[in-house]
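Fold it.
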Amino acid sequence: MGPHKNWIALVVFLAPRFAPALSLDEAIERAEKEYPDVAAATAAIDAARARVPQAKAWQDPMFALRLYQVPTNFESFPVMWEIAQTIPFPGKLGARGRVAEASVDVATREREARALAVRQRVARAYFRVKAAERLAKVYREIDSLYAQTLRLVSSRLSVGPSNLADIPRIEADRAALKIDLLEFNASRRLALIEMAALLGLRDADAVPRLTTEPALRAVPTATRLVDSTLSRPDIATLSASINESRAEVAARKKEHLPDFMVSASYMANFGGMTDMWSVGVAVNVPLFYRSKQKRAVEEAEAIVRSRAKRLDTRMLEARLQLDQALERLRIAAAHVRLHTGTLVPLAERALHASRTAFAAGQGDLFAILDGVKQLVGHHRDRERYLAEFEARWADLEEAIGQRLRGKKIHHGDTESRSMEKEKRGGK
């Protein structure tokens, strides 16, 4: 049985290292390909492109075949063939085509906006999963400290019967820790469900192992990023829609120009007069220009003004969103640094001192339990603020409308060296 157990242990150890892995960049790339909303926006671009040649095309020619002025006594049967073609005024079709081409740009920008929204959803769900996993790891290590404390208390039972009450206290705190662990696992599961939907997977169990760890980055300055807000997909979409509306104004200003119709006909007269032919040119007269074409131009110009004001509003909101994202990012980063550099190490040293004193018969159990609770709280807050930092980083990327690469700042491992020392029994 010994060799078999060794093989089983080796398989368990190596299995996670050969499981399918997924980095954040790979998850974002896959979501942009698989998520239906982005695919729908891509199809909208194809539809807009298909409208361009339609807008530039002439109307189909008209062909007619008719019996023309047949006598009531049927002495003859005049049959007329006629063909007619409408010819638009020069420049009208070109103007309509430019409107259709501008709509392609609008659809392209809208696709970018939807892809950005999916990227932010993926990043937030991704790091919710990682935060839950990291916290679960911390809690498992804390649980091992509870187990060691329980053994310490059991070894001191000979001191007096009063120590018997210490064991239920430890078991109660361990049970509370396991409740928190269940909540973390539930949070991780919910985030994996969202990840599966974004990646086009059948269920949460199909999501590969996530490999990108949350990390602090150097927070950029607002002056460096303020110009980037102009390239945001939503702002670019509004700018493109303004160009589309201006093209619509130019096209409608040409609509009052007359279209021409040229026609040719041939009449074969069976049993009567000789055959005849005719050619002709017709033109439409814009008698109702003031109530139709002029109003259409005014409508298009009003749409341009409306969209321009919406663009101004969106640019103000983008700057506000940028400033808020940067401030929240700085706050989250400060919390991570405070917990990593000060609160967690102090809590670990305090717990180690309490455990050492208790093992020497000088301390009490309440100091240990209080130290464990403080350590749990600081670890939990550190991971929460680290996940908050990643969420605020996603907000910052949303504010500037693009991925932002920042220099990573080392913030320490989830399991500190002090906790590792505690696991080894304080040696």
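The first strand starts at residue 21 and ends at 22.
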